[in-house]
């Protein structure tokens, strides 16, 4: 049985769908205030948790520890630089078949998945190589 969403959850979900990008809870708070829809930060975190458990939003945790939230629209895959924090989207998905197998074998309802590789972007590799020469 589906639980009914609160007004705060509906506002947040609508904003995430409108923005069509990943955003932090703090930035959501600012966006909502700018739209004259003040919601307390604690309420935003509770709403995000409920929406995540419902499977309608996804969370991505950056190397810095910051969490970014977005509406579930498609799988997200990234190359993330540990030095500058740049995140490069990957369009290919090598794990769709694995997802199907896991769902069938474990009878586990999968809402979405993420795939992220961590390392150094080309620019940071050049900077690191220049520093090692000195």
Automatic annotation (TrEMBL):
<dbReference type="InterPro" id="IPR002481">
    <property type="entry name" value="FUR"/>
</dbReference>
<dbReference type="GO" id="GO:0045892">
    <property type="term" value="P:negative regulation of DNA-templated transcription"/>
</dbReference>
<feature type="binding site">
    <location>
        <position position="121"/>
    </location>
    <ligand>
        <name>Zn(2+)</name>
    </ligand>
</feature>
<keyword id="KW-0408">Iron</keyword>
<feature type="binding site">
    <location>
        <position position="84"/>
    </location>
    <ligand>
        <name>Zn(2+)</name>
    </ligand>
</feature>
<dbReference type="GO" id="GO:0000976">
    <property type="term" value="F:transcription cis-regulatory region binding"/>
</dbReference>
<feature type="binding site">
    <location>
        <position position="124"/>
    </location>
    <ligand>
        <name>Zn(2+)</name>
    </ligand>
</feature>
<dbReference type="GO" id="GO:1900376">
    <property type="term" value="P:regulation of secondary metabolite biosynthetic process"/>
</dbReference>
<feature type="binding site">
    <location>
        <position position="113"/>
    </location>
    <ligand>
        <name>Fe cation</name>
    </ligand>
</feature>
<keyword id="KW-0804">Transcription</keyword>
<dbReference type="InterPro" id="IPR036388">
    <property type="entry name" value="WH-like_DNA-bd_sf"/>
</dbReference>
<keyword id="KW-0678">Repressor</keyword>
<dbReference type="InterPro" id="IPR036390">
    <property type="entry name" value="WH_DNA-bd_sf"/>
</dbReference>
<dbReference type="GO" id="GO:0008270">
    <property type="term" value="F:zinc ion binding"/>
</dbReference>
<protein>
    <submittedName>
        <fullName>Fur family transcriptional regulator</fullName>
    </submittedName>
</protein>
<keyword id="KW-0238">DNA-binding</keyword>
<dbReference type="InterPro" id="IPR043135">
    <property type="entry name" value="Fur_C"/>
</dbReference>
<keyword id="KW-0805">Transcription regulation</keyword>
<dbReference type="Pfam" id="PF01475">
    <property type="entry name" value="FUR"/>
</dbReference>
<comment type="similarity">
    <text>Belongs to the Fur family.</text>
</comment>
<keyword id="KW-0862">Zinc</keyword>
<feature type="binding site">
    <location>
        <position position="81"/>
    </location>
    <ligand>
        <name>Zn(2+)</name>
    </ligand>
</feature>
<dbReference type="GO" id="GO:0003700">
    <property type="term" value="F:DNA-binding transcription factor activity"/>
</dbReference>
<keyword id="KW-0479">Metal-binding</keyword>
